[in-house]
Amino acid sequence: MRFHLTIKAATVSDKEAWDNYVLSHSNGIAYQLFAWKEAVEKAYKFETCYLMARDNRRIKGVLPLIIFKLPFSKKKLISLPYCDAGGPLADDTLIESALFQKSLEIAQSAKVSIRSTRPFSGLPSETTINQQKARMLLNLPDGSDLLLAGLKAKVRSQVKKAHKNGLTSTLGFLDLLSDFYSVFSENMRDLGSPVHSRKWIHAILKCYGNRAHVAVVYTSSGEPAAAGMILCHPRVVSIPWASSLRRFNKLNPNMMLYWTFLKFAADNGYPAFDFGRSTPDEGTFRFKRQWGAYPEYLHWADFKQARQLSVPGSSISRNRRLAESFIMHLPVCAATALGTAVRKYIPL
């Protein structure tokens, strides 16, 4: 262990140094930036503990943690809620282990949930890999012309069909928030899933600034038909939320939405695009794979006092199915009101 290594909770004065470390790290992702902490604090009021390891003045590793507290239950530390992965970044395995050990000390008897794109230091990868959750990655060529040419003929045809159907797309920022949220909230209702609050989406955009982009696909009559958001890291563009409305499915708005983001990423020199997590062989998995994306299984595990507790599964309980059915049958405004009241307490 480094003799001068110290680990402390980062403060706002450490934001620039934290972000520089994440942005320069080969395994960094946009969710690990300081902006996620700021958005959680601003929109959902949870406390955070962003651990930073230093050797003298130099940052050697980071571990972002949200102190997640549900009503009438014990707290737990999550890295990170509301997204696919967080977890530690470090210069080497010893520093990563030190960060992890510090998180257990802070948690005391509470659970520490780590979601990572990589195996955990000191543990066999097969003990933490989540076979039910894979992020779908696509390596991007130098420019959208090469990207389009490399797509399968069927996918190119679907992208072109969206244009022929009169759809158009716009890439923007806070100016598209209202249209984004109208699509997002209706789609979540249709899926039977509680929707994030508009305040959360606004906080993400404000905190990420020019590293966040919103796209909206419109019909020929100007109706929003699909919408999504991307968060950018120099090594990978991630898409945390994307939605399309079922009543416009025949127009292929989802194909145009993803093409808009992929074109932006390729033309701006990003080397990879992360389509987000899917369960293998389900519909979203196949949709992402048709673009040429390949699965990279995530490593999710819960720990307590250095003992691995479990790898979260993906079984769906009867109560969850009933809740989904209930939400699906609500008017959008009622489903949105319910969702925004409970969504902050659902860490996935």
From TrEMBL:
InterPro entries in alphabetical order: Acyl_CoA_acyltransferase, BioF2-like_GNAT_dom, FEMABX, PG_Glycine_Bridge_Synth
Domain BioF2-like acetyltransferase span(s) in chain numbering: 154-289
Keywords: Acyltransferase, Cell shape, Cell wall biogenesis/degradation, Peptidoglycan synthesis, Transferase
GO BP annotations, alphabetical order: cell wall organization; peptidoglycan biosynthetic process; regulation of cell shape
Keyword Phosphoprotein: no
GO MF annotation terms: aminoacyltransferase activity
Gene3D superfamilies (UniProt xref): 3.40.630.30
Keyword Cell wall biogenesis/degradation: yes
Highest taxon of the lineage: Bacteria
Family recorded in the similarity comment: Belongs to the FemABX family.
Annotated protein name in UniProt: Peptidoglycan bridge formation glycyltransferase FemA/FemB family protein
Biological source species: Desulfobacter hydrogenophilus
